[in-house]
Amino acid sequence: MVSDHRPSRRNVIRAAGGLSAAMALGTAGLLASASPASAAGDGFGLRIVDRNESDPRMWYYRFATDAIGWNPGVNVLLPDGYHTSGRTYPVLYLFHGGGTDQDFITFDRMGIRAWTAGKPLIVVMPDGGHAGWYSNPVSSNTGPRNWETFHIAQLLPWIDANFRTYAEYDGRAVSGFSMGGFGALKYAAKYYGHFASVSAHSGPASLRRDAGLVTHWANVSSAAVELGGGSVYGMPLWDEARVSADNPVQRVESYRNKRVFLVAGTSPDPVNWFDQVNENQVLAGQREFRGLLGQAGIAHEWHEEPGGHFVRPALFTRDLDGIIGRLRKA
Questions:
Q1: Is residue 309 among the annotated active site residues?
Q2: Exposed end of the chain (fewer CB within 10 Å): N or C?
Q3: Would you state the pLDDT for residue 287?
């Protein structure tokens, strides 16, 4: 269903819930240096330790970075004709969900090449940790896990420096599934001038509802599989300022003048406890968020669909078309 405020491999994925290059809003026309990645050196706090550019569309990199205690990977999916067109392209940053089966190749496994065939868009798919929550954690016992720093202060400017991108607000979108959908909503609000479009596919939008169930899940999941007992927001006491800064429902004005696209499932698997709790929280939180957006007169498109916590390819491709429609044209 579409709200009145809308601007003009079924794979069940178990998820854990869910600048340096800042360009001010309205800096239209500013382009990146657009040097090819194959010729570019390291920079922005990143050092390439592995790479594969043999596939004409999917280029792979692994970086050493002080922000992360291991070497995170990134897939960069190039549009058809990128190498010969000479054109400059908008960019979608696409974030995977949580869980030990989720990483930067998640969307390649799911069919992202086919979904984007013929579409004039670069898609950047970085590691976000098994339960990194697209955050710099309050504490870690496994070394640095500063995913927010890696994505925003390091990877984003590196992409703009090494590919032909529009390095500006109207040249970037951010989207994700589950934990990645939360990350997309969070980054779009905290870094307002970076992304003109934001999408959350079964991504939670409310951290404090139901006694902070999503925040507790972020803490427990990150402690278990990411931080060796550390946590994203602090346990047993939260860092309340961080929760507020990351909470979409507390940042509603930060979505004004953006394209906002939300998807949630209405009928989680009745046998699957995880799916029930997860998507029920997603649905309730997105409804709360949508209500606040509507009250503020902020345009948004929303879809509630039967089923539980998984990516819906038809809505994902609809989202891609909307992203391309909102961003600068290649």
A1: yes
A2: N
A3: 98
User: Which strands form 301-305's sheet, in the order they lie side by side?
Assistant: 46-52, 58-65, 73-77, 122-126, 91-95, 172-177, 197-201, 259-265, 301-305
Reduced to 3 states (helix: H, G, I; strand: E, B; else coil), residue 72 is coil
181, 204 in Cβ contact below 8 A? yes
Structure token pair of residue 51: 């790479």
Ranges of beta strands (E only) in 58-163 are 58-65, 73-77, 91-95, 122-126
18: exposed, middle or buried (C-beta count within 10 Å: 0-12, 13-18, 19+)? Answer: buried
Exposed, middle or buried by CB within 10 Å (0-12, 13-18, 19+), for 304? middle
Candidate list 275, 300, 303, 319, residue with the active-site label: 275
Q: Which of 135, 140, 175, 178 is catalytic?
A: 178
**How many Å is the Cα radius of gyration of the chain?**
18
Burial of 100 (0-12, 13-18, 19+ CB in 10 A): exposed
Q: What is the pLDDT of residue 3?
A: 40
80 is catalytic: no
Q: What is the pLDDT of residues 47-76, one digit of tens each?
A: 999 999 999 999 999 999 999 999 999 999
My answer on whether omega of the bond before 72 falls inside 30° of 0, hence cis, is no
Look up the pTM and report it: 0.88
- Burial status of residue 141 (CB atoms within 10 A of its CB: 0-12, 13-18, 19 or more): exposed
Cβ atoms 217, 243 nearer than 8 A: no
The rounded distance, in Å, linking the Cα atoms of 327 and 203 is 22
275 has catalytic annotation: yes
Choosing from 96, 151, 300, 309, the catalytic residue is 309
Give the class (CATH, top level) of 37-326: alpha beta
